[in-house]
Amino acid sequence: MNSDRKLRWGILGSASIAKGSVIPGLQQSELNEVAAIASRDEEKAKQTAEQLGIPQAYGSYEALLEDDSIDAVYIPLPNHLHREWAIRAAEAGKHILCEKPLALTEQEAREMAQACDDAGVLLAEAFMYRHHPRYDQIRDVIASGEIGEIRGIHSTFSFNNSGSAGNVRFKREWGGGALYDIGCYSISAARLLLGQEPSAVTVIGMFSPEHDNVDMMASGLLEFNDHVGVTFDSSMWAAFRNTLEVLGSDGIIEVPSAFISKPDRSSNFYVTAGGERREVEVPQVNHYSLQGDDMARAVLQGKDLRFASSDAVANMKVLEACLRSAEERTRITL
């Protein structure tokens, strides 16, 4: 295979996450190129293509999927459209990077994964933070025993955009709400760091009639093996926070900016053990670029994805249970 070959991407939609983060990340990566973008508004697609230096613009998602030169698609569409367009992309023979959360339910996620398996294409969920080397470093610290046995994890992700009229995050039927938008990060991180699935979840949510009754705030407890409790809170109507703490029997890991990382800013974290607190230096990289290169290596070089579609299905199972717990005000066993 040509070693100079790059994975050719098509972008289904011009969401801000695509324009501001994922497309630039792919363009700055080693093994990818953004070849086309589609929008239901052709003029919008052309403007975005010109703005970001993308060669081809399409006025429909269908037209992009018919382009045989496209290897993979990125789906940044609202959550309720993930299943439909992932399946249609799979049927068109495209590999898929789908924005988180993968779907609205575990069943939808399973259908997406099955469609990709049937079509022989890859499916990855766009949790970019997992590709940053600092999470490997955090896992190395845990595995080393430096902080002892894990006793608990707490993470936060909050911001206040409650005045953003018409925001897709405020549409209940579209999979809006804080849990699906940002709480999914805390769930994903806990599963990653502990290497297991929770056995039960309990969540209390603040559902706002002003925002189509989506959860604008959610605080949760995930129950894991060995009596480990993971607590988290997520909010779209609170002051900004974005942290993660791993509490051990002999020490603590603190991650000040847990899920947001910029290449030109420090992503260092801190370890306290033996009465001393040290700063762990982390490489300054673009985790969106690394996410794209992971897909490219899997497609072009036959390597395994770092995180298989089964992981995304498992995360969706927990996330769906968390929303149900908040709605029903009850503990849900998994």
UniProtKB/TrEMBL annotation:
Residues 135-254 form the GFO/IDH/MocA-like oxidoreductase domain. Residues 7-125 form the Gfo/Idh/MocA-like oxidoreductase N-terminal domain. It comes from the Bacteria. Keywords: Oxidoreductase. Belongs to the Gfo/Idh/MocA family. PANTHER family: OXIDOREDUCTASES, TRANS-1,2-DIHYDROBENZENE-1,2-DIOL DEHYDROGENASE. This is Gfo/Idh/MocA family protein.
